[in-house]
Amino acid sequence: MNTLTLTFQELGLSSSLMQSVSKMGFEEPSPIQAQTIPLALQNKDVIGQAQTGTGKTAAFGIPLIEKIDVKNEGIQAVVVAPTRELAIQVSEELYKIGYHKRSRVLPIYGGQDINRQIRSLKKNPHIIVGTPGRLLDHINRKTIRLNTVHTMVLDEADEMLNMGFIEDIESILSNVPPERQTLLFSATMPDPIRRIAEKFMQNPELVKVKAKEMTVPNITQYYLETQERKKFDILTRLLDIQSPELAIVFGRTKRRVDELSEALTLRGYTAEGIHGDLTQAKRMSTLRKFKEGAIEVLVATDVAARGLDISGVTHVYNFDVPQDPESYVHRIGRTGRAGKTGMAMTFVTPREMDIVKNIERTTKRKMDRMKPPTVDEAIESQQQMTVEKIRSIVESDNLAFYKRTAEELLEEFDAQVVVAAALKFMTKEPSAVEVKLTDEAPAFSKSKNKGRSSSNRRRGDYNRSGSGGSGAKKNNNRAYGDRDRSKGSRDNNKRRYSNSK
Ligand SMILES: Nc1ncnc2c1ncn2[C@@H]1O[C@H](COP(=O)(O)OP(=O)(O)OP(=O)(O)O)[C@@H](O)[C@H]1O
Ligand SMILES: [Mg+2]
């Protein structure tokens, strides 16, 4: 039987979920959905591993909601996610899936007023989506009781079972009846972590969507070898040349993220940073602005690496090389989602090259080398984009209003000079604004310690104190229209799942 050709109906969805799924624009199940939904509906424990952006949320969300008895008042399912933003996003997706069934879902995360959460809990949600620290807090206060829970999900399971979270997860699970169903999902599942996971499960089925590589084929991956000090100028040149619709720049530390977002702003980009030391209100408003396109560049620590699904992210820049292959996979997976294409650029200093090799070994995918662009290349490619834009405006012939001034200018100056001045005006030349970033020590390869990504992270760092822990060389032949953030193209409701290039 070819599971890939199954329809949602054939997977056994009830009519209210069929309605929701079609309203969400899902035409057919993605491979991970086709393979895990039937198992999960049979109450099996499942470890689901599939590439980033391939629909794992609905793969657990659909069976989870099918199993909710809306007449029953107790909490029936709990999804645990490593960051607040992800908890919110997953709860929104579950809300959509359960909309016609009228199941109630509540996100619970740190940084939000606990009394408000307690009031919401009194409205008897069927499903809670939470971060570990705040969930435990409620369990200890007895404002959340898990004795009626029949389904537990760990989204980003390897991260949740990592050093920083394992104790919290163990405590949460000890409050859930042992006959529960446990579902674990992630794009990465290092063996040592999978072995820990199996301790919490009963005869789990491992569903691993067959893929040659750990990353999706529709992300083109490059590395740029450069010195630490040159990184920032190279980043701005790449932004000018590649003109992303939305871009995420990952930095290693919170300080790095602050400095980078300030520096980008100084140089005229609309950029904001997100990391764990910011208030929850600030984190949420930054993310909202980024989703709406009011910010073009989101600068982030790994707090934004896992699970976030933001349409329109066309480029990911690893300003600092990620510490381990898993982090790399999740970071670049913020682009190239649901069959769309994306580009990932990783900056490496010569001393960090072994990290790139280690990443390539783990992902089974080579990155192409990209030569850092020069200033001249950056200007030239911008000029070409400006010319394309001018051509399209000329063709639209909507210029009557400007023609008189144009004539006046042409009486005064030579035509070539006028056009050159206009081009110069529209081109962003290298800025004279001084920018100083504090040097980061080079990353060290953790290949010998594969199973424990980010094991140096403080326990609970992500959500307690809130945080994030610690080709074409020139892509200038793109139609200008690509940059246009027209709602229509991004919000097209028909979403066909495909992973091909
Ligand atoms: N069957 C489908 N058809 C079309 N689009 C889908 C389908 N299932 C999910 N999607 C959409 O694909 C996008 C990615 O899904 P999702 O966030 O669940 O990916 P993921 O596998 O969890 O990725 P990550 O590993 O980064 O967490 C979302 O916008 C989601 O709504
Ligand atoms: Mg996910």
Automatic annotation (TrEMBL):
Renumbered residue ranges of the record's region Disordered: 444-501
Q: Describe the location of the Helicase C-terminal domain by residue ranges.
A: 218-378
One Pfam family per UniProt = DEAD
Reaction equation(s) it catalyzes: ATP + H2O = ADP + phosphate + H(+)
Feature: compositional bias, Basic residues? 447-457
Q: Does the keyword Nucleotide-binding apply?
A: yes
Protein name (database record):
DEAD-box ATP-dependent RNA helicase CshA
Gene, per the UniProt record: cshA
